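> call design_seq(struct)
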């Protein structure tokens, strides 16, 4: 009788460990441990998407010209990048959404980098999922 109870306890405990260990620790910059556990439990495919997003969600383009309208969705955030000796010390080509504490959402996020005449784009879940589907 004790063996089945112990076995059940061990299986429950090990399944919790599996949920905790299948996401990249980089995601903790944008999501709480509790949020990631809940996502892993309710939708493990989304954890795969978020792990993929770490290195693939962001890209930088030239700032759109005045004639083009674009909905800025930086959510009113001001982002300051470190500047030393008058030079930008951030590699915009390697920036991650987690570096900015952003979360991947249902829509792309557009952030105008005014001093650099650039725009940072953070891809939506839909875009990232399509990219993942192409890889598979």
């Amino acid at each position: 009788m004790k063996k089945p109870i112990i076995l059940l306890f061990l299986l429950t405990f090990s399944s919790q460990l599996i949920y905790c260990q299948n996401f990249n620790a980089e995601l903790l910059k944008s999501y709480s441990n509790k949020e990631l556990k809940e996502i892993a439990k309710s939708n493990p495919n989304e954890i795969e998407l978020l792990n993929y997003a770490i290195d693939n969600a962001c890209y930088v383009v030239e700032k759109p010209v005045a004639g083009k309208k674009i909905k800025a969705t930086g959510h009113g955030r001001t982002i300051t990048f470190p500047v030393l000796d008058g030079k930008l010390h951030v590699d915009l080509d390697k920036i991650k959404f987690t570096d900015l504490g952003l979360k991947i959402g249902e829509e792309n996020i557009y952030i105008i980098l005014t001093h650099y005449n650039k725009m940072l784009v953070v891809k939506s879940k839909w875009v990232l999922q399509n990219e993942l589907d192409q890889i598979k």
